[in-house]
Amino acid sequence: MYERIKGFRDFYPAEMSPHRETIDTVESVAARYGFREIATPALEHAELWTDKSGDDIVDELYAFEDKGGRHVTMTPELTPTVARMVVAKGQELSKPIKWRSTRPFWRYEQVQQGRFREFYQTNVDVFGSSAPEADAEVLAFAADALVELGLTSEDFDFKVSHRDILGGLLESFDRDVDTEAAIRAVDKREKVEPAEYYGLLEDAGLTYDEARQFDDLLDADDRQELVEFAGTDRVREAVGNLDAVLEAAEDFGAREYCTVALDTARGLDYYTGVVFECFDTTGEVGRSVFGGGRYDDLIEDFGGQPTPAVGVALGVMNSTLPLLLQRAGVWPEEALSTDYYVLTVGDTRSEAGTVVRELRSRGYVVETDVADRGFGSQLGYADGVNAETVIVVGERDLENGEVTVKEMDSGEETTAPFDSFLDAADRPTYDDFA
Amino acid sequence: MYERIKGFRDFYPAEMSPHRETIDTVESVAARYGFREIATPALEHAELWTDKSGDDIVDELYAFEDKGGRHVTMTPELTPTVARMVVAKGQELSKPIKWRSTRPFWRYEQVQQGRFREFYQTNVDVFGSSAPEADAEVLAFAADALVELGLTSEDFDFKVSHRDILGGLLESFDRDVDTEAAIRAVDKREKVEPAEYYGLLEDAGLTYDEARQFDDLLDADDRQELVEFAGTDRVREAVGNLDAVLEAAEDFGAREYCTVALDTARGLDYYTGVVFECFDTTGEVGRSVFGGGRYDDLIEDFGGQPTPAVGVALGVMNSTLPLLLQRAGVWPEEALSTDYYVLTVGDTRSEAGTVVRELRSRGYVVETDVADRGFGSQLGYADGVNAETVIVVGERDLENGEVTVKEMDSGEETTAPFDSFLDAADRPTYDDFA
């Protein structure tokens, strides 16, 4: 017996069904926002990651040398791929570009509760707009998707921050601070012990007292305090941009889901402006459900024209979003659904086939016997796939020009004329003949 | 500038749109047949392929050693994975099992016209039924999907054969024939020169005269000739099974798409019974569009209970099916579609936002300005995404309590009351106010 690979999952039909419903909902909300579907390769040249993050990142990737000697990797995220695609078409693409896609990604990391090596994301990105409305549209899409999935503002909270507020504050200390290291420290603020957190800030170049001062600023109620502390254009503009994004989010219906939380830093180095992470308000789902933000430099870093960008990646399937939906009690039922089972008794396949084909052509989910089985086991199968109506096409009934129509929920059944019962209604059921 | 990997494709929105429409059609036909969606890993242990096909197959795979020393491969096909999944759940799964899925696969092969290293398939399989109805259901699904995509019996032809007819005929020669090699030769009958074809049959153990005799049998009009030539139960049963499948296909509406063609052998060694391949009747698409068949031994080979199986894999996206649809003139248009563009002039984001949110909540595709652009470039964008209706929310119009509703096709426009135009119709357009 073969095993599947550790960190990978098989999804059988009943468990797949709520995932499909979730993905379809998220995709349809994205479609209504005008995010257009793209499809992207599972493999890329590894340098899309190593050039920016260094060769060590390979340890976290499914990277390998292909038969042609190329250093390739199974993609751990979408952003570098869409950046490459934007660069490749350059000026051909009219701006703003709004793309979406849902697919798996792969990361060679420690397998633990709720973390898999293969995980799925719906990515949504806007390229070519630095306006706060673009950030707000991404926030509004994400909020709308969660609401459409059944969540409310009681269930989730977008913690919103701005990279240049953090960066600008750090820069205003009279020291040689490693900003990226300090931002990574901030990202761990809620995840590690205070001593470790302050230690990381000290490693990044702050003194202990400065680290404390910096930490206090993160909790400032009035963002003007930050502007005054730093006294730089960078922080003033960043605070202004964050406020503008929140105002646009108000107009787009997403403000109520947002809380400013400057310690929301996002781990990835390519973010440049507003960043946000979605959290479970109850804390039961302990880590970030998903996140996104602005990454204005990446397209240029990849060799393209300067192109501002902002996006979000919602983890679906093997990810945290299903955990949040389950916690909130809005996870769709794990069940199959079937409109009709057409049951044959004796040599009635031809007549049953007529019924099956007609009902399928009307768009219904219709099953029939494909295993040469008897009445009982066909009925058991129909029950197993949650058939709503069973139509029994039996030799003796047919001699009388009839079929039997059985409502599975109630167990009630009645006969109907074979010649006309398909005409009784678009979806003929027990009620039409009882 | 980064390049994508050779043999892989990016799908931008306009080119993606007909692929999405095609996949949705195929998936929805499969759903109506009661094939239930599953999701499966991109990586498997390489031994799922090497145990059966030998280590050389690794040359055609994206196989590598992962960071934990596992010999893994990006999956080149679905069948071994679903076989593994059936074995893993064993008796828990009620039979027949009917599964479907659409996803990419990967094969390290020569890149040529229409052949990619990443290609997509919709796989549909029935497990647990040896009845001819199961084969017929797979044929009927495939035919129905093609018809739903706009093709007719004039466009495509399923060439149907049976492995045991070929195998049984070969066995009836009084020689030590390498059956699998001979079947691979038959698979090449239409693809190579006669001399090479007969040479391959001779390599498999037949004399030249026997090869000619065998070849004549493949074209026999009356299948009883085959039964008589072989004189074995195996061939008699295989012919009976093929006839039974064709009869069931008649009842299921698929017979008209099927032609018996005994030289349809399918390259893969795991097939055991009826096999079929779909061809373009005009021959313009020169190779098999897709194929499928019965593989009754694989689940047992994988360590499971004996479980008959039959399935088909329709190549979508980077595959031959789009070529056939294009050849037949039924390929969907490569275009974006947008119901509304809500255009802002001046400081009207809040009012525009109300309109946008309401129309999106009704399910329409609605875009608005997220790039702080002027009237002209917003209108150009709206045109670029094929917006049907543009609603201009302008400061001056709003002072009069009005918005402008513009029909993009005709260029006609009219004003409508801001307070009530959303109530005029579920989908308010120019016609409601002109």
Identify the CATH homologous superfamily of the largest domain in chain A. Bira Bifunctional Protein, Domain 2
Return the average pLDDT of chain A rounded to an integer: 94
User: Any idea how many domains of chain A?
Assistant: 2
What is the CATH C-level name of the largest domain in chain A?
Alpha Beta
Strands side by side in the biggest sheet of chain A = 1-5-6-11-10-9-7-8
In DSSP terms, counting alpha (H) and pi (I) runs of 4 or more, how many helices of chain A? 15
CATH architecture title of the largest domain in chain A: 2-Layer Sandwich
Summing up helix and strand content along with how strands pair, one would put the structural category of chain A as alpha+beta
* Unreliable residue runs of chain A: none
Which percent bin holds the helix content of chain A? 25-40%
Main sheet record of chain A: 8 strands, mixed
Largest interface, with Cβ-Cβ < 8 Å? A-B, 100 and 100 residues
DSSP summary, beta strand count of chain A = 16
Strand residues, percent of chain A? 15-25%
Instruction: Say what the CATH topology of the largest domain in chain A is.
Output: BirA Bifunctional Protein, domain 2
The radius of gyration computed from the alpha-carbon positions of chain A, rounded to a whole number of angstroms, is 28 Å
Assembly type of the shown chains?
Answer: homodimer
